[in-house]
């Protein structure tokens, strides 16, 4: 892995998405029930990351929706951005992380299942577009901070209890 | 319409009063529990973007012990009691009288869970009395993890309708040690609850 200190970090906040180019590193911190999605292409110098909060834009109760907040619209917009930098949708691959259940509840309320629902929605959207998920670290009950190193295409995942791993 | 655009300064004052009453009652409970004088800051009530919430809770990657519950009943919402990890151990130690109790031990964790239950319950019951609304807590749950990660689940209802949260934020501390926080309460009403809360307190609110 490259040394983070030498690279410029592009921070992606909750309900945001961004693309970046080597030597930049894409990073999102403190993923809980949200899902971090990385779209990249082998050999490309550019990649994109989204931090989605909710499964589907059809759930929205707001008029002007923030498209980066929902799995379906965030993936669509990220693909458009990457196409704008000359990448082909069919050659894109994905790595995903997050979708934890941070709190254990006895109730089966939908609100508390948002993590797994987010993961399912992200996978469904990627599959429908023919984008392969090459690696994932999803579910469980730990928060995650993720960094994507473009070119090496490694997704570094840090949790409080399990330290660091690269997928 | 985004709820945030509908809120006036007068509404913010009402929400501050809610923070005062809820956290005040919780501070009293904690005073009794620790046999120490616990005080609180003036609640800060502000609309903030989701991206800024992890910062408000101490920083996205700051490790915190968070007690989370859903408020059920007339005015649903989410509530958090958040203690930075390094302050959690001294807190359970003074609560149990066991000096070397750590948060990741079974006893430490259940003491912290119990503390979260008592304080959030005491916050919520003061709120229910004040508003005369039926407000029931879901069973509270404890997580010790990154602040950014623990707050996300509490934003579910809100995030369907807005990109902002109106957060009622109150810090409690030991008397004479203003800089040393004993914990932080976050109250995040669901979008539809604002109108119920304001109406119950006789403040006009039109969506």
Automatic annotation (TrEMBL), chain A:
GO biological process: chemotaxis
Class in the EC hierarchy, top level: hydrolase
EC numbers, comma separated: 3.5.1.44
InterPro entries: CheD-like_sf, Chemorcpt_Glu_NH3ase_CheD, Cytotoxic_necrot_fac-like_cat
GO MF, any single term: protein-glutamine glutaminase activity
UniProt keywords, alphabetically: Chemotaxis, Hydrolase
Catalytic activity, as annotated: L-glutaminyl-[protein] + H2O = L-glutamyl-[protein] + NH4(+)
A Pfam family assignment: CheD
Record-linked CDD domains: CheD
Function: Probably deamidates glutamine residues to glutamate on methyl-accepting chemotaxis receptors (MCPs), playing an important role in chemotaxis.
Similarity section: Belongs to the CheD family.
Entry protein name: Probable chemoreceptor glutamine deamidase CheD
Gene (name only): cheD
Automatic annotation (TrEMBL), chain B:
Any one of the GO BP annotations: chemotaxis
Domain CheC-like protein: 11-45, 108-142
Record has Hydrolase as a keyword: yes
Keyword field: Chemotaxis, Hydrolase
CDD domains noted in UniProt: CheC_ClassI
Gene3D superfamilies tied to this protein: CheC-like
Top-level taxon in the UniProt lineage: Bacteria
PANTHER family named in the record: PROTEIN PHOSPHATASE CHEZ
Protein name: Chemotaxis protein CheC
Organism: Salsuginibacillus halophilus
Organism ancestry: Bacteria, Bacillati, Bacillota, Bacilli, Bacillales
């Amino acid at each position: 892995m490259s040394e983070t200190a030498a690279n410029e970090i592009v921070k992606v906040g909750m309900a945001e998405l961004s693309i970046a180019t080597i030597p930049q590193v894409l990073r999102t911190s403190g993923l809980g029930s949200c899902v971090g999605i990385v779209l990249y292409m082998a050999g490309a110098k550019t990649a994109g990351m989204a931090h989605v909060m909710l499964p589907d834009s059809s759930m929205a109760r707001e008029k002007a929706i923030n498209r980066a907040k929902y799995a379906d619209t965030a993936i669509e917009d990220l693909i458009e951005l990457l196409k704008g930098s000359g990448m082909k949708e069919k050659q894109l691959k994905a790595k995903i992380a997050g979708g934890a259940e941070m709190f254990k509840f006895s109730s089966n309320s939908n609100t508390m299942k948002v993590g797994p629902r987010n993961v399912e929605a992200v996978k469904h959207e990627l599959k429908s577009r023919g984008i392969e998920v090459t690696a994932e670290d999803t579910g469980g009950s730990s928060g995650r901070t993720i960094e994507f190193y473009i070119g090496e295409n490694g997704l570094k995942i840090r949790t409080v209890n399990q330290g660091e791993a690269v997928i | 319409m985004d709820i945030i655009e509908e809120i006036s300064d007068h509404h913010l004052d009402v929400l501050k009063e809610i923070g005062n009453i809820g956290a005040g009652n919780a501070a009293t409970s904690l005073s009794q529990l620790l046999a120490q004088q616990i005080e609180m800051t003036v609640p800060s009530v502000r609309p903030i973007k989701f991206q800024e919430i992890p910062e408000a809770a101490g920083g996205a990657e700051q490790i915190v012990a968070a007690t989370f519950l859903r408020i059920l009943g007339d005015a649903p919402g989410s509530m958090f009691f958040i203690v930075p990890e390094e302050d959690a151990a001294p807190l359970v130690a003074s609560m149990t009288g066991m000096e070397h109790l750590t948060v990741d031990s079974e006893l430490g964790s259940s003491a912290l869970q119990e503390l979260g239950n008592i304080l959030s319950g005491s916050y919520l019951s003061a709120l229910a009395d004040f508003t005369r609304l039926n407000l029931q807590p879901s069973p509270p749950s404890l997580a010790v993890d990154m602040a950014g990660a623990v707050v996300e689940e509490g934003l579910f209802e809100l995030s369907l309708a807005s990109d902002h949260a109106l957060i009622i934020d109150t810090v409690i501390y030991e008397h004479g040690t203003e800089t040393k926080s004993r914990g932080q309460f976050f109250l995040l009403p669901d979008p539809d609850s604002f109108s119920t809360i304001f109406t119950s307190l006789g403040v006009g609110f039109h969506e």
